[in-house]
Design brief:
The complex is a heterodimer of chains A (584) and B (433). Chain A has 584 residues and is of the alpha+beta class. In chain A, 27% of the residues lie in helices and 8% in strands. Classes of the chains: A alpha+beta (584), B alpha/beta (433).
Chain lengths: 584, 433
């Protein structure tokens, strides 16, 4: 929780207003007539960035050279440009405050000077236009906000300083906020990098507590970037009208993942994994909590995906049948329940549990960096129960991010199953419509479906498991798979035996959903039956933009996790955890 | 507020006005008569007042109903308006003609935006609704407004008066109690009205969940800015969560009963959500409402994480029971609604409103909106005071929560103490006038 200053509240009402006015006017007031203007700090950056490209010592335009004080006083074709003590007679100032469409406005091209900058010029001239002889100016590159600064802020700052994440009371996603907010006053003082905490905090030693971005979030920034920020502030911290920043992942690899984070999760997994013997079941405790889940071994092998055209209730997209080879993995014995999912969904609650159990810090430096869902607006179990009941109504992006968080938390690589893995595990060596045979009459012993569910999901693991010990593969909640849904997916398997196929998603819809649910008729619960996600699954989300975390209308949809025996590379992990795109 | 501006435009006034500014009308919004009887394919101009996520969603839904253009927007905060505009444009690039000149920022920005539209969407924090609805009706505009439509007795009275005026002017008014446009609810309640479970003798309603966002105070904000930004936690703005969310469930029971409660009593407080960032509202309310036929509604709403949660409505009849939200009837006439194709009620409510506007059908949800809002306000009065609250007492309450003066540098009526904490209502002590 951000701490914030309430000094403000202790004042009398009349004073509050004046405090607000001071803050709003900000630096303009601070640099009124009284303040001493410093040539090196305040004026030099303006002249070098905005004037010297045309008015340098070599062939200056209008014969006006602004590289030294003497040259500026001498002036050019139009006479002197600088009369010390008299800003109104100094074209160096008067030409900068003309209307922007005036023919004589300086600088004529590109961004005009801001009021703060022209006031600095005015006051500096007023105060005698001190300009040490040693200061010979040269042109410096004018910082272009959009090209030079925006990418740095969007990848390294906005994540913690945006709406709802205004750490330190600072938001930097719009100009208005960047230049005004901040618990300890404005963090950017245009023209004065040396007095702007915004820059100063980026150049602290790497182990300093106040370093920005903090070490845990990838700080310190490279020197080229901190230099750009300094130069940008010194040149007036110009921010083009209306540019609003959005959080971006750093130098994105496939799917826009932050490679540093995935790399640290990967390293943690490599260090931790290997304790579990392939082929043996295990129980995974989520560190820092009392919540655990069971994983069952699924042997590698071959099977036939899809259903024969003779199968009752079969649809076209279940064929043609193809031979598939699957590598060994573990699979969740049951669907993920709210017990596990809420730890991910409500980070504050999870932190409280850790604190209560004095387990502050277990594995968390990494896991806490994984993005977590926003607070839902509606009650997400829809009254169907939480303790021991399957989690529902999450987007595939949310399920993927859960896997990433769980991996960071446990040090084991978890992900969603591919469609081929899912059907393989569901069949558990069978070739019949269901893993217990072909007779839908027996479905009630093995599954929750519309005929017995009382119109709601039920506790996981109650019905009889399939031959490999997995519960609720048929029914209860339908389950997310990784793949993009293609009606003709199996036609693309051209080899005699296709090994570990995965139709990597490139669009947000449709993704594969398997197993059928409490709300479905028996034929949708068959081992081969395929379903596909649809935008209507979040149609009741009343907001715009709609949430990337919740499918409010998919109250029949959950997931279970798998863990491949072979640990993939960090790059592969990133691909698994960012299947498809999060935005609709 | 300026008296002149809030006095209703009479029919004669507006005939005079439209005569005088023919030129302006031609390029601006339709005149009241034309808007009131817009032909099926005429272009309808909408203005969005309150550009949060819900307002943006409502605007996008209005645009989907047909030949509709978003022409103006208003919000208290520029950043809100800007991101909303971006989001709506991304959805409907050819139906947005908003320019900087038709974007209005500030607490009274709504008036100018309303002028430019045929239909206005009111989606600011609820406390502003009565004044804005009044103004929209005064200017002769159709309205879609979010729930609740008021946060206190004086506000409800304003809305009821403006609703009458809207009726006289032939204006259509939709209220965001979208369950009225949700097929499962409609079908279930139709059966209940037809006697599927006999006489309804007892009712329950819940919005028990974990609560919503908090927006932290920023340095330099005036108290008014802070409260408007973090509006959920101030009763004058949100009505407390019993009004802001639980109204949905209370409204369903009113609908099932075809009536509004005559009195209520209850209890509530704040046990867990007690920070200064949580303003003054309670984190739980439990209220027993009594209807004229003697039947009782037992209502709970809670914003506390990690507890039993449910958002639902249930009714007990002489011949069976119904889980209304699950669209299920149990008993001799057991029945479950199963959709062939689900329709989005948030879309349907706009489809229905715009259909009524284009085809001049009867459509005025403001009366029910005001009375269901009052139901929730009455419940809040009961939990804040610990007293029995009668319907008429709530309706005629003189307790006006709205600031004396609405401006960023003016003070709201509720203020924090030296440590930043707000006074909390205390049952047995707090009084309602």
């Amino acid at each position: 929780m951000t701490s914030h200053t309430n000094y403000f509240l202790q004042m009398k009402p009349a004073m509050r207003l004046s405090a607000a006015v001071v803050t709003i006017l900000g630096s303009a007031v601070a640099y009124g007539q009284g303040a001493k203007v410093d040539f090196v700090k305040d004026i030099k950056p303006i002249l070098q960035a905005h004037c010297l490209s045309c008015h340098g010592p070599e062939k200056p335009k209008g014969d006006l050279d602004l590289s030294t004080r003497a040259a500026a006083v001498k002036g050019g074709d139009g006479g002197t440009s600088l009369v010390a003590g008299e800003p109104d007679k100094s074209p160096l100032y008067t030409l900068t405050i003309l209307p922007h469409d005036h023919d004589d406005i300086m600088p004529p091209k590109g961004e005009k000077l801001t009021k703060v900058q022209t006031d600095l010029l005015k006051n500096w001239i007023q105060q005698g236009a001190e300009w040490p002889e040693s200061e010979k100016l040269v042109q410096v590159k004018r910082i272009d906000f959009v090209r030079d600064i925006q990418p740095i802020l969007e990848t390294s700052c906005v994540a913690c300083h945006k709406e709802g994440h205004d750490e330190g009371g600072l938001r930097i996603d719009t100009e208005e906020l960047a230049l005004k907010s901040g618990d300890s006053g404005p963090s950017i003082i245009p023209g004065r990098a040396s007095e702007s905490s915004f820059w100063k905090l980026t150049v602290l030693p790497a182990d300093h507590d106040d370093l920005m971005p903090p070490k845990s979030k990838g700080g310190p920034l490279p020197k080229e970037q901190t230099d750009l920020i300094k130069e940008w502030i010194d040149q007036g911290a110009l921010w083009p009208d209306g540019v609003k920043l959005v959080q971006k992942a750093k130098a994105a690899v496939a799917g826009g993942e932050s490679p540093e984070l995935v790399k640290s999760i990967h390293d943690f997994i490599v260090k931790t994994s290997g304790q579990d013997k392939p082929g043996a079941a295990y129980k995974q405790l989520i560190p820092g909590t009392e919540v655990s889940f069971e994983m069952l071994p699924i042997p590698g092998g071959e099977y036939t995906i899809g259903s024969p055209s003779s199968e009752a209730g079969r649809k076209e997209d279940e064929g043609p049948q193809k031979k598939i080879k699957i590598e060994p993995f573990w699979m969740g014995k049951t669907e993920i329940t709210w017990n596990e999912y809420e730890l991910f969904q409500f980070p504050d609650q999870e932190k409280k549990i850790r604190e209560r159990r004095s387990l502050k810090g277990i594995n968390d430096p990494v896991a806490d960096l994984v993005t977590r869902p926003t607070t839902p607006y509606v009650e997400m179990s829809f009254g169907m129960g939480k303790d021991g009941y399957p989690a529902i109504s999450m987007t595939q992006h949310a399920a993927n991010t859960y896997c990433k968080w769980l991996s960071a938390k446990t040090g084991q690589f978890y992900r969603l199953p591919t469609e081929a893995e899912w059907e393989y595990a569901c069949r558990a060596g069978t070739t019949t419509a269901f893993s217990f045979g072909d007779d839908p009459e027996k479905l009630g012993e093995h599954a929750w479906f519309v005929g017995n569910s009382e119109f709601k999901y039920q506790k996981v693991g109650v019905k009889a498991p399939n031959p490999w010990g997995l519960h609720d593969m048929h029914g209860n909640v339908a389950e997310w798979c990784l793949d993009q849904y293609l009606p003709d997916a199996y036609q693309k398997f051209t080899e005699a035996v296709t090994t570990t196929p995965w139709q990597k998603a490139t669009q947000p819809y449709p993704h594969v959903v398997r197993g059928g649910s409490w709300n479905d008729d028996p034929e949708l619960l068959r081992s081969a039956a395929r379903n596909a996600s649809d935008p209507s699954w979040k149609m009741q989300d009343p907001q715009l933009p709609k949430s990337i975390w919740y499918l409010t209308d998919a109250q029949f949809l959950g997931f279970r996790v798998v863990r491949p025996v072979k640990i993939p590379t960090a790059e592969e992990m990133a691909k698994y955890w960012t299947s498809g795109t999060e935005k609709d | 507020m300026n008296k002149e501006q809030t006095s209703p435009v009479t029919r004669r006034d507006f005939l005079r006005t439209t005569g005088a500014v023919v030129g302006a009308t031609a390029v601006g919004a339709l005149s009241v008569e034309r808007a009131a009887f817009a032909a099926p394919n005429d272009e309808l101009k909408i203005a969005l007042i309150g550009c949060g996520g819900r307002g943006s969603g409502a605007a996008a839904q209005a645009l989907k109903t047909g030949n509709v253009k978003l022409v103006a927007m208003a919000d208290a905060f520029k950043e809100r308006l800007d991101s909303s505009l971006q989001n709506i444009k991304a959805q409907a690039p050819n139906q947005v003609t908003v320019t900087p000149e038709t974007s209005f920022i500030g607490l009274d920005a709504y008036k100018k935006a309303i002028e430019l539209a045929d239909v206005v969407i009111l989606a600011t924090p609820p406390g502003f609704r009565p004044h804005q609805f009044e103004e929209a009706v005064r200017q002769g505009k159709h309205v879609f407004m979010e729930k609740p439509v008021a946060t206190d007795g004086p506000g409800v009275r304003r809305v009821l008066a403006a609703a009458e005026e809207a009726k006289k002017k032939g204006l259509k008014v939709g209220v965001g109690l979208q369950r009225h446009h949700q097929d499962g609810y409609i079908e279930t309640i139709k059966r209940l009205h037809d006697g599927a479970i006999g006489d309804i003798v007892s009712m329950r309603a819940y919005w028990n969940d974990g609560g919503v966002w908090v927006r932290n105070r920023r340095p330099g904000q005036t108290e008014m800015e802070y409260q408007v930004m973090n509006w959920y936690y101030f009763t004058w703005l949100s009505g407390d969560h019993i009004a802001e969310q639980h109204i949905h469930n209370l409204d369903v029971i009113n609908w099932v009963k075809n009536a509004y409660p005559v009195r209520c009593h209850g209890m509530g407080g704040r046990q867990v959500r007690t920070g200064k960032e949580h303003g003054e509202i309670f984190d739980h309310h439990a209220v027993e409402f009594e209807y004229a036929d003697g039947s009782r509604l037992f209502s709970q709403c809670r914003h506390i994480r990690g507890c039993w949660s449910s958002v639902s409505e249930h009714v007990q009849g002489t011949k069976g029971t119904a889980d209304v939200g699950a669209n299920r009837i149990s008993g001799p006439q057991a029945w479950q609604y199963r959709a062939q194709r689900r329709r989005d009620p948030y879309q349907t409510e706009h489809d229905n409103l715009f259909d009524a506007i284009r085809n001049n059908k009867e459509f005025n949800e403001a009366f029910n909106g005001a009375k269901s809002s009052l139901t929730s306000i009455m419940g809040r009065m009961a939990t804040y005071t610990g007293q029995v609250i009668e319907w008429d007492k709530a309706l005629n309450s003189e307790m006006d929560l709205f600031p004396e003066k609405l401006a960023w540098d003016a003070l709201p009526k509720i203020l924090p103490d030296a440590n930043g904490f707000y006074p909390i209502p205390t049952p047995g002590v707090t009084m309602i006038s």
